[in-house]
Amino acid sequence: MHDPSATHPHHDETATPRSWWLLVLLCAAQFMVVLDITVVNVALPSIGASLHVAPADLAWVVTAYALAGGGLLLLGGRAADLLGRRPVFLAGLTLFTVASLASGLATSPAMLIAARAAQGVGAALLTPGALSIVVTTYTGPQHHTALAAWGAIGSAGAAAGMLFGGMLTTWLSWEWVFLVNVPIGAAVLVLAWHAIPRATTSTAPMRRSLDLLGAATVVAGLVVLVYALQGAPGHGWGSARTLVLLGGAAALLGAFLRVERAAAHPLLAPSTWRARSLVRGSGAMFVVTGILVGAFFLNSLYLQQVLDASALETGLAFLPIAVAIAAAAHVAAHLLPRIGSRTLAVAGMALIAVATGLMAAAPDHASYAADLLPAFLMLGFGAGLSFPAVSVTAMSDVAPERAGVASGFMTTAHEVGAALGVAVLAAVAATGAGGVGTLVAGYGDAFLVAAIAAGAVTLAALATFPVVRPEAGARAAMHGDDDPRPAPRRRR
After folding, report:
1. What is the pLDDT of residues 296-348, one digit of tens each?
2. Within 10 Å of residue 2's Cβ, how many Cβ atoms?
3. Are 128 and 1 in contact (CB under 8 A)?
4. What predicted TM-score, i.e. pTM, was given to this entire model?
5. Of 352, 335, 342, residue with least CA distance to 460
6. Using an 8 Å Cβ cutoff, are 218 and 254 in contact?
7. How many other C-beta atoms can be found within 10 angstroms of the C-beta atom of residue 207?
8. What is the DSSP letter of 5?
9. How many CA atoms lie within 13 A of 19 on its CB side?
10. DSSP characters for 267-317?
11. How far is 286 from 280, CA to CA, in rounded Å?
């Protein structure tokens, strides 16, 4: 991942119309990337019916995108450093836009899943390229405002995805959850071609090679792991097929670690694993994101297939989660300097455990207002408390010169967690369905596993997280205010 601390911005601190116009373009591109993580969820029943996708295979529509994007994110960051931020961003945006067109025109499950994976590859190039341009273009007060806008786009895109997915599926068709990216992507591409300075290129010596073998082994390992999980309910968790695939996934992921130790310029330096708070925080981010995105996936099916909600009604049903996340993040920004990251992280993850427990206990034909809405609000508020607290914890023992690598590691955990969360919960739901033919029959079993996972990570955070209290300036930065980036205060 690009290291912001290693850059030397060349622009002055006076905002110009062009500089802010560039930020708008970069944020628009990133908005599409984040939107596509969740926008497809509401359209899944329509996609399944139109393309005759087996219920157990619907998860691939989500996981193919998240796996490719998360697994290749570090490679995309390295490519931006070596090949230049401008060309990597433009290449990623072009691939993402073309793959969106292919997704919307898909006529078979295989074609759609392949196109979604290509979207993920485009996102893995687009995101680090765009972020590195933001970091190197803006300085001083502009820098914090730009990063605050970038962070807000992440939250807004994920929240808006469910609503937009419902609107597009209801008013047009499921194809438009992908096709809507095409005119937006094309317009951003043309404008960004002229707006991004050609001087925004790498100064890294080209003798430094991209770690293609590392990227290939980690993505292959994750794909085989998800393939094993997706097929386990039908073939049996103890079947030879499942065990061989799980062993193959472990071997590939182990090979990735060996490749990284031997590589001259690895995607992920082995020393990263020695940053204990980073590893613990990223682990918590992995679990929390997996539960949240998995909950979007299963509840979108439950609302439409069990409660007979329309796609638009389903999108609206998820709005309370988005509101709760935003409200809790605001609360967390003010409480972090006072009570520290560990208390907030534990409280947030405990709320997620209770919320998923309520979903697991919901009756077969639950009432949205009485059974699901309280759980949705708790899930959103818990996630909103957890994410900033976990992020502060993860970065608390990272040296400034390693901030780029650490943020890339944490972002990868976020993206891969989303993919595996959907895969695991879908597999458990399919097992619980017992051959009924629909994932919602195993809804309670899936959320029981989610509740256990949330409870376990809550206890782990209570036992192992340090207490980190950001200074007042750091708190202000969470709202986009000026701030000299002081180090957080940390104690055990």
Report:
1. 888 988 888 888 888 899 889 988 988 888 888 888 878 888 888 889 899 99
2. 25
3. yes
4. 0.81
5. 342
6. no
7. 8
8. G
9. 18
10. SS-GGGGG-HHHHHHHHHHHHHHHHHHHHHHHHHHHHHHTS---HHHHHHH
11. 10
What are the structure tokens assigned to 203, written together?
Answer: 């100064």
Q: What would the pLDDT profile of 224-283 be if each residue is shown by its tens digit?
A: 998 898 888 878 888 999 899 999 999 999 999 898 888 878 887 777 787 788 889 889
Q: Which two tokens stand for residue 125?
A: 């190039």
What band does 413 get if pLDDT is binned at 50, 70 and 90?
confident
pLDDT over 90 for what percent of the chain?
25
Rounded Cα distance between 77 and 470, Å, is 27
Q: Extract the tokens encoding 165.
A: 């997915």
Contacts of 338 (CB under 8 A, 6+ apart): 469
Residue type at position 372: L
Tell me the backbone φ, ψ of residue 8, rounded to 5 degrees. Answer: -130, 90
CB contact at 8 A, 137 and 19: yes
Bridge partners, residue 491, by sequence? 467
**Strands 489-491 vs 467-469: parallel, antiparallel or unpaired:** antiparallel
Helix (H) or strand (E) holding 489, with range, is: strand 489-491
Contact 163, 136 (CB under 8 A): no
Dist CA 339 CA 155 (whole Å): 24
The span from the CA of 346 to the CA of 412, in Å, is 22
**Nearest one of 293, 282, 295, 340 to 460, comparing CA atoms:** 282
Angle made by CA atoms 329, 285, 59, in degrees to the nearest 5 = 105
| Distance of alpha carbon 478 from the chain centroid | 19
Q: Can you read off the two tokens belonging to residue 378?
A: 């708790």
